[in-house]
Design a protein that fits this description.
single chain, 256 residues, mainly alpha, transmembrane
């Protein structure tokens, strides 16, 4: 009986010791787990703070991006306005240049028209003068032959020479080379050059020669203008080339 009781006490003590050991181990495990839980809680808190800061930074960046976008839009609007102003100024300058060029062309055309009208008026006056002299010579050849002497046979017309001695504005033609057209008057008593039947066709010959010379000059001016527009050479060079061509060709001078 005593041995059984001792054995039971020993077993009980062993069980108690085992239980206490297990309780201690469980307590240690619980302490470790509690520490781990606390550490995890701290890490969660730190992560939450980090996430909050990140969200705050991202919100600030979004606001910066929005402000930059608005500034970019404003700059684009200002750029468009500047481009419109530049285009408007260019259109105004182009319009001014076109108006100036039109005014210059109109002035040139007015000058050419004035010269043509002067030429026509001079031609009409010359024809009227010659016709009046021819008609007077045909009406009374004896009195008209007695009115003029041999020293007044050739009468120069200064208006013709001075009118055609002016160059064109571009310097292409020089009308100084056109001689004054002699008007053969009816001679005196014994110093008459030719009789009345020969004077009339001679006068018409000089009139036709004058008109032909004027037409040749006008055609030469027009051809030189077309050459200048096509080739783009300066007017003086074209004038020198025309002078060289004229000197190479034969010259025909009317016999007096």
């Amino acid at each position: 009986m005593i041995s059984l009781a001792n054995q039971l006490n020993g077993l009980n003590n062993k069980l108690v010791s085992q239980i206490t050991c297990e309780q201690k181990s469980h307590a240690n495990l619980n302490a470790k787990q509690l520490k781990e839980i606390e550490s995890l809680k701290s890490t969660v808190k730190s992560l939450k703070s980090i996430i909050f800061l990140i969200q705050k930074d991202s919100s600030l960046k979004d606001s910066d991006i929005i402000s930059l976008g608005t500034k970019i839009n404003e700059l684009e609007a200002e750029l468009e306005q500047a481009i419109r102003k530049v285009l408007l100024k260019n259109s105004n300058t182009n319009q001014l240049y076109s108006n100036l060029s039109l005014k210059i062309k109109a002035k040139e055309l007015e000058n050419e028209l004035e010269k043509v009208t002067q030429n026509l008026s001079f031609k009409d006056g010359l024809i009227f003068c010659l016709r009046s002299r021819v008609s007077s010579a045909e009406a009374d050849p004896v009195s008209s032959s007695n009115d003029y002497k041999h020293d007044e046979v050739v009468e120069e017309i200064p208006h013709f020479s001075s009118h055609y001695s002016e160059r064109e504005p571009d310097g292409k033609e020089d009308y100084d080379s056109i001689p004054a057209i002699p008007v053969i008057a009816l001679g005196g008593n014994s110093n008459t050059l030719v009789n009345d039947q020969k004077i009339i066709p001679l006068i018409f010959f000089f009139v036709i020669l004058a008109f032909t010379t004027i037409e040749i000059r006008v055609m030469g001016f027009q051809s030189n203008t077309q050459k200048n527009q096509k080739t783009g050479l300066p007017p003086m060079k074209l004038y020198l080339m025309d002078m060289d061509e004229a000197t190479k060709g034969p010259r025909i001078s009317p016999k007096q």
